[in-house]
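debug: dumping io for the single-chain case to check the tokenizer round-trip. Nothing else runs in this session.
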Amino acid sequence: MGITADMDRSVDAVVARARELLEPLLEEHGYRLAAEYFAPAAFGSVHSDYGSQTHRLEMAWDGKDRWLWFRIQALTIALRTFFDRADAI
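debug: decoded output
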């Protein structure tokens, strides 16, 4: 799943700004949006997963407590297979 212009990704201004700054850098380094989950009932929380051939970056916004965090992890063979299959869909 790539980032497309027709996707409705309306979120809190903090998340929107983080995406605005982060996504071009991620794309430049081979990362693509793999999954994104919105929880409007949970104060607008958002969870986004970006993947490259070697790493996964997770960005989460806690809408209630208003904090943004990132986690980066090296991919194992099993996760690489998941991202390869996600590209085929």
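debug: round-trip ok. The first strand starts at residue 32 and ends at 39.
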